[in-house]
Amino acid sequence: MAAGAPREALPGGVCRELIGAPHPVLTAKALPVDPTDPQVVAAAADLLATMRRSRCTGLAAPQIGLGWRLFSVDAGRHPATRSCAGEFVVANPRLVSASHWETAREGCLSVPGLTGGVPRATRITIQGEHPGSGAPLTVHADAFEARCIQHQLDHLDGVLFLDRVTGTRAVYRVAQKAVRQVT
Amino acid sequence: MSWSAVTVLGADRPGVIAEVTSAITRSGANIEDSAMTLLGGHVAMMLLVSGEVPPASAFPGLTVTATEVTPRRSAGDTAGLGYVLTVHGPDRPGIVSEISGALAGASGVVTGMTTHLCGRLYVLIADVRLPEKVDVAALMRHLSAVGAGLGCEITFRPAEAEVL
Lengths: 183, 164
What we know:
The complex is a heterodimer.
Chain A: E1 2-4, H1 38-54, E2 58-60, E3 70-73, E4 88-107, E5 114-129, E6 136-142, H2 143-156, E7 171-173
Antiparallel strand pairs in A: 1-6, 2-3, 3-4, 4-5, 5-6, 5-7
Chain B: E1 3-11, H1 16-26, E2 30-39, E3 42-50, E4 63-69, E5 81-90, H2 95-105, E6 109-118, E7 121-130, H3 136-150, E8 153-158
Antiparallel strand pairs in B: 1-3, 1-4, 2-3, 5-7, 5-8, 6-7
Helix pairs in contact in B: 2-3
């Protein structure tokens, strides 16, 4: 559930090419952004457009080639979602609380063909800023939405889900169409 | 009773595991431990079998070897601390040998390893046990240096058992 200033409409974005591993932008720490910078606002719109086209539940700026601390999430269509903040983009997000850990499988558009069992908190709170106004944004998330948000936060730190799998038997090959993507 | 390490290799198809295990059971032998995976469309099984292993003719269409062994406790079974290693980066020769060499240099025992090649991305996941007196920070620095030389990202973290 999102709290803070009312969500602002972003300009229409364009669908960008997805970056797949191995690529340096996916393993580098992304840089903070000025959420009011028009280039950042345009990137936020592009993230939404690319996320919608890819039919995934989240997308981080490094996945479209930008080393910026910016990601989009829309967990509303996923069957494991409980509460849901809807579609949103957040700049400079940071995790402020996390609890109730569970391990579940997740995949990534940037790592096609593999999924892995990853422990994540199922109740989290993040804080960040709205792209555009720069107003504060707080999101309380649980269940799948919390997993998705933590996956995106990892992307901003150059971490892939592969870096968090629980062991050799926690990585699975999958037909690429069968992957339920977290991003 | 004799023990044998049995390897089975053949084209993957439905029922192949049932055929292998049925043949072993019919011969009166027992499967004490096993591992199975798919490698390039082939099924690969490794079995620790007690008792008389059936002849190769009992496994039509499969390549089977049996080697008599004496069961023993592995150095990685219980001693030390468990860690999980992830390596990912562009595929290139030498990743497994360099990483496993770095672990061996710290007396680490690899108790499990899987690798995956997905397009250009090479992924290695290993379960590792380290002696309790190993300088883990120094090993992590060494692994990072090895990974940088290979153009790979490396994470090395404690294995967290969820004992319920």
